[in-house]
Design goal:
With 217 residues, the chain is of the alpha/beta class. The protein is built from six helices and six strands. Strand 1, helix 1 and strand 2 form a beta-alpha-beta unit. 33% of the residues are buried. It binds flavin mononucleotide (FMN).
């Protein structure tokens, strides 16, 4: 069983990266073979609308662009589960994750009502979002609704609903005193880091275990 995690944070070992590591640890404890892709280590662009992936005389499901994402997109066709992780930037996923999803999702769909996906198999997935806002603010701003669009397309392409983890109120700086951040309470951030983040890490570990079990079913 092979699982790949896609990190859409430019900071490899911060909140998003740490939670993805926990998912991979959980998956490894169930004997999965795991790989982590840090998108910001790669050189690539989003979809350029060439439509080669939709041509009737070409192989569907293949993005024609050639860059660092090309081997990753090929590899994703072989794996048994995918974990996506992204920080929230301006109420959406990061630009790196957005560009990746454009390439991955668009190349695996064709404009057909009968054929929702040309991805070769049905596989489980999970999406981890990390953000500054609190759970209450997420509700207030209707963020869950906004993010549903990604879930809809991932479901359409991979054929199974994603498991979701929202990590709220994340710790953003090493030292809050060095940055203008008066809109946040440093004390609340420390409490969240020490109390909530370990709970989120535990949930991420469990996602890793569950996703392997679900893929092996
Ligand atoms: C450019 C930028 C935009 C951001 N926009 C939002 C936002 O709209 N809502 C939010 O809750 N957090 C926002 N954040 C905070 C990050 O989502 C949050 O700190 C996240 O956990 C960072 O992930 P990382 O630690 O993996 O880098 C933003 C951060 C940056 C750098």
């Amino acid at each position: 069983m092979k699982l790949i995690a896609i990190n859409g944070s430019p900071r490899n070992n911060w909140n998003t990266g740490k939670l993805l590591d926990k998912v991979l640890e959980g998956a490894k404890s169930e004997n999965a073979e795991v790989e982590l892709v840090n998108l910001y280590d790669l050189e690539y662009q989003g979809c350029v609308s060439c439509f080669r992936c939709k041509r009737k005389d070409k192989k569907h499901g293949k993005c024609a662009m050639k860059d660092d994402l090309t081997p990753i997109l090929e590899k994703l066709k072989e794996v048994d589960a995918i974990i996506f992780g992204s920080p929230i930037y301006f109420s959406a996923v990061s630009s790196g994750m957005s560009a990746f999803l454009e390439r991955f999702l668009f190349s695996n769909m064709i404009y057909s009502n009968e054929i929702p996906t040309v991805f070769p198999k049905k596989i489980p997935s999970a999406f981890i979002y990390t953000m500054n806002i609190t759970k209450e603010q997420m509700k207030e701003y209707g963020m869950e609704e906004k993010l549903k669009i990604f879930q809809y397309y991932i479901y359409r392409i991979l054929g199974k609903k994603s498991e979701l983890l929202y990590a709220y109120n994340t710790y953003q700086f090493k030292d809050y005193d060095k940055y203008e951040s008066s809109m946040f309470s440093k004390e609340e951030k420390i409490i969240s880091k020490n109390e909530q983040f370990p709970i989120d890490c535990k949930k991420a570990f469990e996602i890793g275990i569950n996703i392997v079990k679900s893929a092996n079913k």
